[in-house]
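Recall the central idea of this unit: under ordinary conditions, the amino acid sequence of a chain determines the structure it adopts. In this exercise we apply that idea directly, starting from the sequence alone.
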Amino acid sequence: MTLPSILTNAPTPRRRDPAWLGRVFAVVTTLAIAWPVLVLAEFKPWLLFSPESLAPTLHFLADFFPPTLEPNFLALVLRETWRTVAIATAGISLALVLAIPLALLATRTLSVSALAGPMTPLPWLVRQAVRWLLMLLRSVPELIWALIFVRVVGLGPTSGVLAIALTYAGMLGKVYAEILESGDAHPSHSLLRNGCGRLQAFFYGLLPQSATELTSYTVYRWECAIRSSAVLGFVGAGGLGQQMDASMKMFNGGEVATLLLVFMVLVWLADLTSGLLRKALA
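Accordingly, the structure predicted from this sequence is:
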């Protein structure tokens, strides 16, 4: 028998995934953790396909077509869309006014007392107090803040702006501080050791290397604020959410479909804006 025929008739070695045991363990562990959680949450997706739920769901979805395109309604949607964007933008602007100084105070890289080692007690306490404040602000959902401010200032966009400002100040401040601390600390430390102030160390040491990430996250939060302002409309904060609440209560699926399409366009424009800003800063 020739050598080529021996090689041809040689048995093919079995191919076995060397990581199969780890993957099986991960799947079993996930099921063991997820199953009790789903049972506790009473997650029953099959109820969506029961005859009692399927018929009204299909009827409700059928009312979405065609979307309402009447000129008077489109003019109303355009006005409420502008109000929704204004609520989100004003809320994010106020959140930035709170978040930026709180983030600078919470950033250890900008601490003068930490240059030679551990932070001294007073700066450490101030930094921890700021971090606790940020945690408090973001731990309360904007919907709860809106319900509180609706009782204080009444119905209207003001309650939505204040609710977004407080919640997003906590979110932005926390993430800003983490982004700044994850950057290279050498430039800012060099500036601080040579007599520069914290703002100079921030603008010339940390900001140039973190500007793209900070901008991207800010635009993302603005996009989230647009969605939040729509949800806040259901509790009387104005905007598209309030109009959608009225349309759903009237069982007008065509109007709801038009409003959902407007939401999709707003999110697409926010994503496009984020991409353009990232390219400009790259």
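The chain has one domain: 71-281.
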